[in-house]
Structure formats: C-alpha cells, structure tokens
Hints:
Blueprint: E1 2-6, H1 13-25, E2 29-32, H2 43-52, E3 56-61, H3 79-89, E4 94-99, H4 115-125, E5 130-132, H5 135-150, E6 152-153, H6 159-170, E7 190-194, E8 200-201, H7 202-213, E9 220-224, E10 230-234, H8 236-246, H9 249-260, H10 264-270, H11 274-282, H12 286-289, E11 292-293, H13 295-301, E12 308-312, H14 318-326, E13 332-337, E14 340-346, H15 347-360
Amino acid sequence: MKVYLSSTFTDLERHRAIVARALRKARYDVLMMEEYVARDQRVEFACRGDVTACDVYVGIFAWRHGYAPEDHNPQRLSVTEMEYAAAGAKPMPRLTFLLDDKARWPAQRKDADLGRISDLRARLKKQCSAYFRNADELAVEVLAALRVHESTSLAQQLEAIDVMAKAQDLGPSYVMNIKEKLHVLGEVPLIELRIGSPPWWNTRLHLVAALAQEPGRARGLAFVDDEGRFVAMASPAEIRHRLAQRWPALERAYADFRREAPTLEKVEAELWRYPMFASQALGADEQVARHVLSVHDLDYELGIARNADVVNVGGKGQRFLQREILGRQTPFVALVRDGKLEGLVDRGKLAERVAEAVLGKWE
C-alpha cells in the first residue's frame, strides 16, 4: 500500500522521519515532500499529483499553517491544505492526526498568528482526527489507523438492490431492469440495504439473499434505517434461512423459480417472472400476501444471528479502537459514529495485520 505523508516540514521534521521509518519497517511504501527537491515542477503541483498517485493520505498537523503559494491561489490555501483537498477530490481515505491541544510545543514551532491554523484544526476535528503528544505516540497511532483501515470495507449500496425494492411498487415488468445489474450481487463482499422507504417485502429480500448467496462471494448484508443508522448485519445464508423459517413459502417460490431458471444467465432472462412464482407459493397475489419488513423485524422478530458487533468510534484513539475491535467475538465489527454506519472491519484480517507487525519486531 502506498501512503502519502503530509505535514508542514520544519516544525514536524522529526515526527515525519519517525513515522516514515515506522511505516517503511511495516512494509508500506511512503511518499513525502522531501523527495521533491530535485524536481522541475513547482512544489505545490508536484505534491498534489503525488497525493493522487497514492492509496492513503496521512496528514499530520501541529501549529503551523504552512507555505501558501501566491499564484492561482485566491483562497490562500497552504500546500498541506492543497494536499488534503487533493486526497478528498480523488477520493481516497484521509487519516489525519492533530497535535493534542494540551501537548507541550515550543513557541518557535508555532505561527505568530494562529488564526489560519486554528481554523484548519477546527475543520479537521470535525473529520474524526486522532491526536498525539509526541513523535513515538504518533507513529503508533498512524500504524494502528492504517491496520484498521486495511481491514475495513464499506457496504456498497447497489443499483440492483434499489431497483429490486422499487419493483414491488411498479409491478413485475420493472423487475426486468435488474437484468443488466444482477451480476454485481456476486462481485461485492458487503451489500448495504436501507430498510424504510421504499419498503422491503419479505419476498424480495429473500430473493436478494438467495441470489447474493449463490455465487458464494457476498459475505454480508448490512441493514441501515432511513437515516443511515446501523440496524444489523448477517450473512446472505442467515437472512435467507430466517426468512424461510418464518415464511416457508418463500423457499418454495425460489426453488420453483430456479427449476425454470437453473443458471444465472437464465435467472437474468427470466427474473421478470419471479413475482408469479411468489404468488403461486403464497397462495395469493404477491402484492397482497407479502409482509413489509421493518427495523423491528430485523432487530428482534426474525431471530437473526448477527455477524457484526457495534463499536462507537467517537472520541477514541486508534490504538484503543484497535484493541476494542480485536476484543469482539463476531467476524465483523460495525464502526458507528452518532449511530450511523461508517464501515465494517474484518476482525480476522485486522488480527492478521497486528500479528504481522508483532512478528516483524523479531525479524
């Protein structure tokens, strides 16, 4: 993984060197401004170009705003602000680290006028920055943040899922819109479903879970409510099992449908007929016999065995967050801030990354 290390230079030179050494020892590829000296390009443009060539941005901020180029820079952004903006525009993960407000810091390493850097720090604090008091603590925090990042995935909101949900209101013919998008159910590991508006029917969720399970790639369905608050996460097989346990006719409908469409190619061609199979299995028109699922159903009624514990990330340092994640027992951990899902950590993958780091000390 290629990491871009960004900060002002003279005030944080030692911190940069210690972090870069720790990252390279952990086998990360590190880029930073010290490597631009021999270039013909202007520094600010070279920096921004190299930011977007990396996988992760790591920004370190103390009490200096930094050099702000005069030309073509009406907002008077510093080079470090430009790098931060370039990472956000790519977009790419931005991990930011602020010198603790109460940490001791030499006056000569601070701006005479703290207005610009104070404004920047205030904006960064809203973006979930971590804090450090010295160079060694910073290196540990950066490494912990990268390990958590490497083990975190976003549950993807798939267009095919949106179409599936809308189809129940717009009629069987609308299901045909899924044809060209159906393959994505087997290409992403984590799928996000919003429970609320439009409403999810039990028939359609069972179909999604069954289709996501068959290719053997989707590891989890993550459910959020209309406001993005995390509800639950479970494997497609578990969701399918619990729905079929509550409404056995759903499994009959899917089995009958797959007898007519035994291959995924056939599924894509015949999916428009699925509501007919659902109606036959339920003994009534699907629009009448279906059950509209609620957050309460997923949270309590269906008895779903969850594979993601919840960890609130607000106000926690990266080392503490890493320890808390590793202390959970579920395969995944849902990272939640103000109730809203930010990402899902593969706990086994994180444990492997931490073990690699520990073993690396003995090499």
